[in-house]
TrEMBL record:
SUPFAM superfamilies: PH domain-like (SSF50729). PROSITE patterns: PH_DOMAIN (PS50003). This is Pleckstrin-like protein domain-containing family A member 1. The lineage of its organism: Eukaryota, Metazoa, Chordata, Craniata, Vertebrata. Residues 7-112 form the PH domain. Residues 117-130 have a biased composition (Polar residues). InterPro entries: PH-like_dom_sf, PH_domain, PI-Interact_SigTrans_Reg. It comes from the Eukaryota. Pfam families: PH. Residues 117-136 are annotated as: Disordered.
Length: 200
């Protein structure tokens, strides 16, 4: 049964099949160290080993993608669970029926990615930026390719904002001039070419 040691790590003896094709499990002492971001195994409890003894194997928790029950994958192996790490599967065998359930829960909790929630006391910086930019708004554009030339036109009609209409129009004109391949409309008195040839 997994237990918590004095350094707040989860430990227990488990059998592991290190080579997927081999039919034998080897018994090692496993330590789940969430602070060190690792799942390591030793020949025995490190407190019982000489000071210079090294670990047998280790996996970084960031490499473990999923831990689940392996009863269907290995029906002959009792109390077995599988750990997917990178492109490999590690099959582990526990001592009794409750141990694999506990190890699966503990390992899945350790590899879970948590994103901290933004507190209500801190205002959202995006909202502040949007509120501070009076008259500046995002406008969607439609791009058409006509004779190999991209034509960019706004798809939304201008809306009256808290600021004046003039600032909206000025901002729209400024934003259009910075777009790549923007072709302004020709003045009404100039001649417009309606047909042309292009050579690639």
């Amino acid at each position: 049964m997994p237990y918590v040691d004095c350094q707040n790590r989860i430990c227990d003896f488990l059998d592991i099949k290190e080579n997927e094709n081999s039919g034998k499990f080897l018994r090692w002492y496993f330590i789940l160290d969430t602070r060190g971001d690792s799942f390591v195994w030793y020949v025995d409890n490190p407190q019982n080993l000489p000071s210079k003894s090294s670990r047998v194997g280790a996996i970084k928790l960031t490499y473990i993608s999923k831990v689940s029950d392996a009863a269907k994958l290995r029906p002959k192996a009792e109390f077995c669970f599988v750990m997917n790490a990178g492109m490999r599967k590690y099959f582990l065998q526990a001592n009794d029926q409750q141990d694999p359930v506990e190890w699966v829960n503990v390992l899945n909790k350790a590899i879970k990615i948590t994103v901290p929630k933004q507190s209500d006391s801190q205002p959202n910086s995006d909202n502040l930026n949007r509120q501070g930019e009076c008259g500046k708004k995002q406008v969607s554009y439609r791009t058409d390719i006509v004779d190999g030339v991209p034509i960019i036109t706004p798809t939304q009609k201008e809306e009256i904002n808290e600021c004046s209409e003039n600032t909206d129009k000025n901002n729209l004109k400024q934003s259009q001039s910075h777009l790549p391949y923007f072709i302004p409309k020709p003045p009404p008195d100039s001649a417009v070419i309606t047909a042309a040839y292009c050579v690639k």
